[in-house]
Amino acid sequence: MKPAIQIAMQTAESNNRDGDFAASNCRSDFDRGAATWNARSRRRDTQPSRNQFWLELLSKPACSQTATLLLCFVAWLLCGCVTTTTGEKTKPDRMAIAQLRTVSVQVEVQRDFTVVLARDELNDVGYLTGGIFGMLAQESAQINADAKTAERMRPRLEGFDSQTVLRERLVAGLQNTGCFSSVTDASATPAPTVEPDAVLVLRVKCWGLRTGMGKDATKRAQAVIDVDVFLRPREGGKHLWARADYFAGGAARPVDDFSKTEGLLKKEIGEAFSRYADRIVNEIRFMR
Amino acid sequence: MKHHLLPIATVLVLAIAGCTGITHKINVRYAPVEQSPLATLKPATVLIQVEDQRPAEERGYVSKWEGGPLDPTHRFVTRESPVEILRSALRQEFQRNGHRVVDMPSAEVEININIVLQRFIGAVVGADKMAQIQAEVSVRKVRATEAATPFPVAGTYKTHYVGIALITADPSNELALAMQDFVKNLALDSRFLETFEQR
Fold it and tell me: Are A9 and A16 in contact (CB under 8 A)?
């Protein structure tokens, strides 16, 4: 008996055990064929059997892995359509902002000093030599190289507190505008006695050195700050204003300059932070 | 022997392609800022001068992209020079907000704006496409006796792609939006506003 027919017979027999099909009486090839057909058409009628078929198929290791990989690939392709951009995310609610009397400043820094240079290099050597695994290995090596560069430079930032620099500049800037009767630091201890009408939140996603762009883009770097900023009313709810920024205002220099020249890294990053804080202060001043 | 010809030819073609460059001409169109601080200032007659002091290696293109060692280098150049693009954007922004812009020094000029362009560049790095415009700006009242102190102004824009497969290297959109950011930052700068307000 051919294997396909054998399976059909087994299915028919199992159905027969349930008492609704007499496949055990089939003897000739014709009968066997008819038994197969009937067994299949009955399976089509019953949905649970079909689901069971897929479940059984997917539970087989090889199929499961293939399906997972396929799903991941489709998801990755779909994700290709997703982009995030810098710029204004919520237009300022000028009426509400004009009524604010007291503001508090909150700065959150999500990551420590970061260098992103090696991993920005467009290079398909890893993929060409080892396919996806080669690509992943190359990426891992690039991330390690960046981490080592950051580690090498970290002593140059001794005493530099990104959170404090930004917060102090923002508080001082907003106070100087004269737009608010009180500007407080949300992280101050003891907590400010004045309850703010709104909180200006700066969420620094990443700060450090990144491509200087142009010639030797990954060998020259500049100080950058990647931030989400929003003005949140005291009672919560919709933001009064929100934007995302990638601020790179510094000069592009060879990467080694930052580690070799005393004080350069701190100065460049400090200036970028101050200029960014000024920019936010100016935006808020203009809204009022 | 014939069997070896195809791979050799393929390698040669790829190597030649890797050494060649493709130049793309792009248009960078400035879209004015929706609500500009310039509209709040007393109307003035302004002379805008833009000087190109970009590094020599960045003057030949506004963005360069190479997918890999065997891929050709794509260079993006603007149809108009970056200096002209920036001057035209500023002229448009000032005029739109009620100011008069002149191209030559004259007796009518009240404010001189001198812009030294230091960078006008776009790049695709990793999963990001970004653009940056950087300049030293000095704003001076014509009647002022003291020299103006230049201050830096920058405009940046970044698009982050979650999947890198769909990135096109053309930086025109990013440059246009970086220019919008630049113009807005200039108009918001307190040193710029003070000169205007103290007339």
Answer: no
Given CB atoms, is A95 within the 8 Å cutoff of chain B? no
Percent over 70 (pLDDT), chain B: 86
On whether both A211 and A113 belong to a single domain, the answer is yes
Domain of residue A2: give its range: 1-47
A43 and A94 in a single domain? The answer is no
> What ipTM was assigned to the predicted interfaces of this complex?
0.80
Tens digits of residue pLDDT in A118-153: 887 767 777 778 788 888 888 889 899 999 999 999
Which segments within A10-145 are labelled E, that is strand? 83-85, 87-90, 102-109, 114-116
Mutate to test the interface with B, among A78, A79, A85 (most CBs of B within 10 A): A85
A123 neighbourhood in chain B, CB within 8 Å = 68-69
Rounded Cα distance between B139 and A179, Å, is 25
Over 80: is that where the pLDDT of A2 sits? no
Burial label for A197, CB within 10 Å (0-12, 13-18, 19+), is buried
- Average pLDDT (A103-125) is 88
Same domain assignment for residues A26 and A168? no
**CATH classification of B21-197 is 3.65.10.10, yes or no?**
no
Domain check: are A229 and A164 in the same one?
yes
A246 touches chain B (CB under 8 A): yes
Residue A267 and residue A158 share a domain? yes
Minimal Cα–Cα distance from B108 to chain A, Å? Answer: 29
- Please judge whether B67 and A122 are an interchain contact, meaning their C-beta atoms are less than 8 angstroms apart: yes
Verify whether the Cβ–Cβ distance A215 to B67 is below 8 Å. no
Both A113 and A29 in one domain: the answer is no
Residues A115 and A218 in one domain: yes
User: What are the strands, taking DSSP E only, across chain A?
Assistant: 83-85, 87-90, 102-109, 114-116, 182-185, 198-211, 220-233, 241-247, 253-254
Token pair 């503001």 in the structure block, residue: A103
- Report how many domains make up chain A: 2
**Is residue A214 helix, strand or coil?**
coil
Q: Has residue A69 been placed in a domain?
A: no
pLDDT in tens, B150-181: 999 999 999 988 755 566 789 999 999 999 99
Give the residue with greater pLDDT, A120 vs A6: A120
Give me the residue from A123, A211, A245 closest to B68, CB to CB: A123
A89 contacts chain B (CB < 8 A): no
Interface contact B29, partner A, CB < 8 A: no
